[in-house]
Amino acid sequence: MEQMKAAGFPEGFLWGSASAAYQIEGGWQEGGKGVTNWDTFVRIPGKTFKATTGDVAVDHYHRYKEDIALMAEMGLKTYRFSISWARIYPEGKGKVNEEGVAFYQNIIDECLKYRIEPMVTIYHWDLPQALVDAYQGWESPQIIDDFVNYAKTLFTRFGDKVKYWITLNEQNIFTSLGWLTAQHPPGKFDDQKMFYQVNHHAFMAHAKTVLAYREMGGKGEIGASFAYTPSYALDCKPINAMAKANYDDLKNYWWMDVYAYGRYPIAALTYLRKKGFAPDMAEGDEEILRKAAKEITFMGVNYYQSCVCEYNPIDGVTPYGTMNTSGVKGSAQEVGIQGIYKNPANPYLLTTDWDWSIDPSGLWFCCREITSRYGLPIIISENGLGAFDKKTEKNEIHDEYRICYLKEHIKALGEAIEEGCQVLAYCTWSFTDLLSWLNGYQKRYGFVYVDREEEEGGTLNRYKKDSFYWYQNVIRTNGVELFQE
């Protein structure tokens, strides 16, 4: 709103950065860790950019003290990281791997030594392969109890030191890429019925985990993190406005309404029942979802881009267009659901080399919408720019484009806070460079450059980018300097 001008951020605001176990740790066969679905998937020819794997990643498993010391030098207030289920339970259940517990206890203690608040993601896509072999993982309701058992182990071992818990990271992404587009494990294509059933199992795992945390006496903050892509109607033509409403119900509210209200959006559920895709629910599931919704304390948001919605004719584009995983700008294809919506490019926005729209206002928009629709505090659990960073002969990395991206997004976040949105934390993606799932190591996100390419064998040395010093100053001034320019 025009009359409101942001001046800074609240006292105690958690300036942070984020990572995921598979993308940074490496040590895939060390410390008693079991094999994960990703360890298996990346060995299928053609699944990842230049056959990159997380076997070594950026070796955080051996270099976590060095990395956390750099976080302390920057001044981070929180570090969001995920725990690999297979490090705690190599077989997904059964006997606890004490070496894995000790590894994460060391990370937590190292963070606390520097007064960095650990923010733990319980599940960031790496599932023990043993559970896939036993019952197809998320496809079976058996996973719900196994997930809750794993989560309760984390609460028991780390609950006295961890105050922030994220149950699931981007449930909408790992399920859609796993069961609709075959780009993530288990690599299934257009399995619509199973896609929605898998999501229901994940919702139940989340809900029962939240309830278990409270039953165990957990007093901290707990919720899920959702990959939120806010939408704009192409124009004021009613059919395009309805396309936006349909997109929101099927692509955004389907997840956020369950987290916050404990129920599915009515129009979307009705549509899916007519199509035969609606999930089967066991007796008592709806009550459990509603109870859990009353116990979460934030909505986690991973924000990267917005989208445009236009009516899609019945013979229009499908959801299965080519995704840009190479960094060749313009190679992504338009997608949508036939007869419902499609997502054309926004002519008013620039894009990254991976064809993601750059829209700081979208972050402001999504915070306003969450605040008005759900009345929940917000944690921005991911926001960042993937780019082709280059190191000079003097070991300098001049990433002014990342500084510009983050600056504008943080300023938009400040505007949302000024308008009444309660935002607890802002975590960039990511602290160090890391493996970008399908995009390899060339797509760099970090404040810290890691010396490695797609092939193994780099030094893995760390080098601070220009953005490192910029974010350090943002944290030092609590964002005030951004609004004095």
TrEMBL record:
UniProt record, GO biological process: carbohydrate catabolic process
Recorded GO MF terms: beta-glucosidase activity
Keywords assigned by UniProt, alphabetized: Glycosidase, Hydrolase
Family recorded in the similarity comment: Belongs to the glycosyl hydrolase 1 family.
Pfam families tied to this protein: Glyco_hydro_1
PANTHER family cross-referenced by the UniProt entry: ARYL-PHOSPHO-BETA-D-GLUCOSIDASE BGLC (PTHR10353:SF136), GLYCOSYL HYDROLASE (PTHR10353)
Catalytic residues identified in the record: 382
Protein name, entry field: Aryl-phospho-beta-D-glucosidase
Hydrolase recorded as keyword: yes
One term under GO cellular component: cytosol
Gene behind the chain: bglB2
Keyword Transit peptide attached: no
Organism of derivation: Sellimonas catena
